[in-house]
Task: inverse folding
């Protein structure tokens, strides 16, 4: 039996449309202090989830090539949660200063996401977290915008190929 590659298509389209609608609404309003706390809590939940995925990656991989994140319900819930974080971080663009608890949650999230292994998650989730225009890059941009120093997690050395 071959699995249909479009198994999540309708649900993901609905989630993406909701994200677009919320993004449009967010440009019309200022974030509230309570939204800072909610964003910090969501970031902490993401860190906890990533650490659990890391700790149980070998065990969970027995459930298939992408572990539990390939399951329909887990995949959709994780996908929607990541898009909620995108929405939260987009709403912080106009804020002059962030509370210390939110900055700490952003720093911890950046650190955890920088260590994320491609094999621990479904590829679509990994792409949302670490791909081009990923949650990780948005978090780093937010930290930089608020005067934080972001550690370089992807460094490499260049050297000449010939002996001198």
Result:
């Amino acid at each position: 039996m071959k699995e249909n590659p479009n198994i999540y298509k309708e649900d993901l389209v609905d989630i993406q449309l909701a994200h677009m609608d919320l993004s449009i609404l967010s440009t019309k309003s200022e974030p509230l202090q309570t939204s800072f706390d909610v964003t910090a809590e969501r970031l902490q939940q993401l860190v906890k989830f990533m650490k659990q995925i890391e700790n149980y990656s070998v065990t969970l991989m027995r459930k298939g090539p992408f572990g539990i994140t390939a399951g329909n319900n887990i995949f959709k819930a994780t996908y929607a949660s990541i898009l909620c974080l995108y929405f939260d971080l987009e709403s912080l663009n106009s804020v002059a200063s962030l509370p210390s608890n939110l900055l700490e949650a952003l720093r911890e999230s950046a650190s955890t996401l920088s260590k994320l292994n491609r094999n621990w998650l479904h590829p679509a989730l990994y792409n949302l977290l670490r791909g081009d225009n990923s949650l990780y890059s948005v978090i780093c941009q937010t930290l930089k915008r608020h005067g934080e120093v972001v550690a370089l997690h992807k460094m490499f050395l260049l050297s000449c190929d010939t002996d001198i």
